[in-house]
Write a structure and sequence with these properties.
binds glutamine, binds zinc ion, TIM Barrel, 8-stranded parallel β-sheet, 2 domains, 763 residues
Amino acid sequence: MSLKTNILGYPRVGANRELKKIEEAYWAGKASKEDLLKVAAEIRRSNWTLQKEAGITLIPSNDFSFYDQTLDMSLCVGAIPERYNALRNDRLDLYFAMAHGFQKNGIDVTAMEMTKWFDTNYHYIVPEFTKNQEFTLLYNKAAEEFKEALALGIKTKPVLIGPVTYLLLGKEKEKGFSRIDLIDRLLPVYVEMLKQLEAVGAEYVQIDEPILATDINEDIKDLYRKVYAEIVKSTKLKVILATYFDSLADNTDLAVDLNVSVLHIDLVRAPQQWKDVVARLKGNTVLSLGVVDGRNIWKNDFVQSLEIIEGVKHLLGEDRVIISTSCSLLHSPFDLENEKNEKSLPGEVKRWMAFARQKVAEVATLADLADNAPSEKAKVALQNNIVDIENRRSSGLTNNAEVRRRMAGITPDFARRNSPFATRIQVQRKVLNLPLFPTTTIGSFPQTVEVRSWRSKFKKGEITKVEYTNLLKGEIEKTIRKQEEIGLDVLVHGESERNDMVEYFGEQLSGFAFTQNGWVQSYGSRCVKPPVIFGDVSRPNAMTIDWITYAQSLTDKPVKGMLTGPVTILQWSFVRNDQPRAVTMKQIALAIRDEVVDLEKAGIKVIQIDEPAIREGLPLRKRDRKAYLDSAVEAFRISASGVKDETQIHTHMCYSEFNDIIDHIAMMDADVITIECARSQMELLDAFVKFKYPNEIGPGVYDIHSPRVPSVDEMVALMRKAAQVINPAQLWVNPDCGLKTRGWAETEASLRNMVEAAKKLRG
Ligand code: GLN
Ligand code: ZN
């Protein structure tokens, strides 16, 4: 008999992104609702069956979602903002309207806001609450899906977002109340939901409270006590309280006092926490050990996991131990067996990896191995695992002596420009000779269907490399001429050769591999396919020089070299877990540094290193933030500091809240930063009232996410607002972000107005 096993959640887009495809067809009016429901039911059936066949004890249900589990909860508890009232007669269409807005039949409503789920790249739909918010159980999705699985002969464990996490993830849409006070109205609805789950035959329920792994104050702790006292009292269901993404740390006492049947902890993010939790665990509470990483693609190290499992088993007894994934497998791709391209993913690297389906098997095997008499099959699996892990540890593919040597030779000077900004900017101004309020763009220009068709033809071998290069050169020339005509000051080549700002560099760096099907849900029907960083990173050849120097050869105006920074490359990849992330980040920094130096040698005077993802890596717990920010800033500086004073380094950031990390942004010491601002009407500027930003800065003056053409006057007004808190001599004029997703017509019109606005400001 093996120990009990638990999966916190399973990916729901389907092995071949079936859900994405059918949903997008449904939204476009090209598939019926019946088809959509059929595909969804098939995904659920297949997920449950696969886990049942793997021998999992606690198989999740209600982990499926057409868009997002937080939005599901809003719908179920009736937290539906008033603006959707006209759409209430069809539940699914109401749901999609909340997810992405509705513009049809004379109705025009905006979507609900979307934001990142903790420190993942998954986005949830933010619940909206009003002062008089009412909750009612509109729909018990969890009970419906439980019954559906039961009809297939599978008794599942429904998963719910916990009421405290749900409330805290939401937003007050009016003043004069706090959303935590809504708990008295929300809690009875949860209790009702649980009672119905009991009635349909559920035995367990998993309640997710990842907020317990974050810094919380006494009010929230009290809230937890009150909520779980009520839940535990009102239901006979065995409650699995799931925490993940960090340790319980100073919330450990609180969590063990909540008196639930099973407490789940993340032992991938915080392996050391098990001792503390076990020592404090009360009564008969069972511990669910999250040892298999739900957020990465590496094989579990069985020996390491068994060490923890044996330790806990020894202290609690095997009846009080459950083997589990660290968090939901939502953040892992579906099935490694679908990877068949030896060229982009070598067999040796694949051998070190595990996707969701393989992780389920790992959980089952670990539970088997933890038994006093493991099966023969499990013993063989353990031996194979030891060999694979050892193969990875000693592989020549992961270790590159030259990279190690360079890393060891990094001195503080690597992260320092030759002179301070005040000196550099004087030289740069002489070299560049730009007007006051210089204008520029963020990098990409419209990536038309035509441009994308060239790339796909080239990949399929339908056109030659020479043909492809010539087409792109034509596009670059067109882009340069357009910018000259519009009258911009610092030009870009337009990035038409790039499919994705991380993939493009990953494909040219050593230490990266690529999957064919390693899709992970980002939001709604959108999935991303992160590159895999498996080994030491280096840059065998120059990556951008040909394109940039070609662009520069066409004009007398400065053309910006355009690179993605080390923090962003790291953040948007699956990163090796056999060394600290900061080390991998530094290796990428060296590779980017090489490119920066080569660009300078090739005569490029302005180089932009994009870091839009810098804020995303911020740890959940305050105590870890400084270390992260320090290493991120250092990595950026290493990448940027190999050049002379006269070379101007730009960086760009977008779509996060930057006000609370502004001091670290300044420490990056880029000569110029362009930063997203327009959507929040320059809310960012609040930070500059108190904090004097030392270098040059271009607060974005128009939102590139809409085809709308901004007027000259509104951009002038925004810049004047900026000039109130920032010295005008420091200011640049630019859009919010790259123009890749826009059409040429609106791009041209907007940029002409922008240049006009800059001229007005100069006058
Ligand atoms: N240089 C990139 C572009 O213009 C920046 C993209 C981004 O910030 N996400 O597309
Ligand atoms: Zn951007």
